[in-house]
């Protein structure tokens, strides 16, 4: 499958077959790494890593994945370059596109990412914007495949604040994989309407099921996986509505009682991390046998490697 030269803005850009191809490659490169096989397929490639927002998993995953394949990753903090200050995004993109083979962007506005894609003329990968987080969703699905194999019809329940980038990307990829995807949140914290409309079109083709519920115990019944994210995202800490948001989200905490309400011992717990234990999830669940959050974190590296290989070679 030819994906060379493609950027990754959102998962809406990629077909079901393209998503499955990248996931297949992710499993392959994970096995290679486990067996100390490093083919260096990105030798002499240079990767720009632009960070407006701080990171642990994303920076580490891109850096190690690039080194494993023989590429050179260059960390570019927003305070280190003229990006968006003395120089427009358009001009920065045209400069970087002449020097680097690929660009990773982790920041705020989707429009900034799209400008990088339009003007750099090299593959640009969305490592998080306010609207989408596709590299996280790839790792989430890879983790589920490792536990359950074929995901058609598997029930994935996302609880808590669903008006965010993680919920958007997870909803898209779950629908494309034919899953039974449930958003369980207050009505005021549901995903953006335009993305819901896109997902309603997808499920007609894939046989997926999409539900929006408000009762956690009802939502999680027979769930194969429970997923949550922080209730206050990076950059929102000083918003005046934070205290009110936490209050309305308290019933959606993933705790042991909610795990029991699934009626399944095998229900998986996932979280994109970092977690605020005691808010969206309890320490007990986070450290339980149901939790696969560190497998999920590791899989960021393997899926990112697969994305870079697919689009650069």
UniProtKB/TrEMBL annotation:
Pfam entry (one): OTCace_N
A molecular function (GO) term: amino acid binding
GO annotation, biological process: citrulline biosynthetic process; L-arginine biosynthetic process via ornithine
Chief localization: cytoplasm
Enzyme Commission number: 2.1.3.3
Residue sites binding carbamoyl phosphate per the record: 55-58, 106, 133-136, 272-273, 300
Catalyzed reactions: carbamoyl phosphate + L-ornithine = L-citrulline + phosphate + H(+)
Every Aspartate/ornithine carbamoyltransferase carbamoyl-P binding domain range: 6-146
UniProt keyword list: Cytoplasm, Transferase
Binding site for L-ornithine: 165, 229, 233-234
Keyword Cytoplasm: yes
Keyword Cytoplasm attached: yes
Location relative to the cell: Cytoplasm
Residues in Aspartate/ornithine carbamoyltransferase Asp/Orn-binding domain copies: 152-310
The family this protein is said to belong to: Belongs to the aspartate/ornithine carbamoyltransferase superfamily. OTCase family.
Protein name: Ornithine carbamoyltransferase
Organism annotation: Fluviispira sanaruensis
């Amino acid at each position: 499958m030819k994906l060379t030269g493609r950027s990754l803005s959102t998962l809406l850009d990629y077909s079901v077959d393209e998503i499955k191809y990248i996931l297949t490659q992710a499993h392959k490169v994970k096995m290679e790494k486990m067996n100390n096989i490093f083919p260096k397929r990105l030798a002499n490639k240079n990767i720009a890593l632009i960070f407006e927002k701080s990171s642990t998993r994303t920076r580490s995953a891109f850096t190690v994945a690039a080194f494993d394949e023989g590429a050179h990753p260059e960390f570019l903090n927003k305070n280190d370059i003229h990006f968006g200050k003395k120089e427009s995004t358009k001009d920065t993109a045209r400069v970087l596109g002449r020097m680097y083979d690929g660009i990773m962007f982790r920041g705020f506005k989707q429009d900034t990412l799209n400008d990088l894609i339009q003007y750099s003329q090299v593959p640009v990968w969305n490592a998080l914007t306010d609207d989408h987080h596709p590299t996280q969703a790839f790792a989430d699905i890879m983790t589920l495949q490792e536990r359950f194999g074929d995901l058609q019809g598997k029930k994935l329940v996302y609880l808590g604040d669903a008006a965010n980038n993680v919920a958007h990307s997870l909803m898209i990829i779950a629908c494309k994989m034919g899953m039974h995807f449930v958003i369980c949140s207050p009505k005021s914290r549901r995903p953006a309407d335009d993305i819901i409309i896109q997902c309603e079109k997808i499920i007609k083709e894939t046989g997926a099921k999409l539900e929006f519920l408000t009762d956690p115990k009802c939502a999680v019944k027979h769930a194969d996986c429970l997923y949550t994210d922080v209730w206050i995202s990076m950059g929102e800490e000083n918003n005046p509505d934070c205290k009110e948001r936490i209050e309305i989200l308290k019933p959606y905490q993933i705790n042991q009682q909610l795990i029991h309400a699934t009626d399944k011992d095998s229900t998986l717990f996932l979280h994109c991390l970092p977690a605020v234990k005691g808010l969206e999830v309890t320490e007990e669940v986070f450290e339980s046998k149901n939790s696969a959050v560190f497998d999920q974190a590791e899989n960021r590296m393997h899926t990112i490697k697969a994305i870079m290989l697919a689009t650069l070679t």
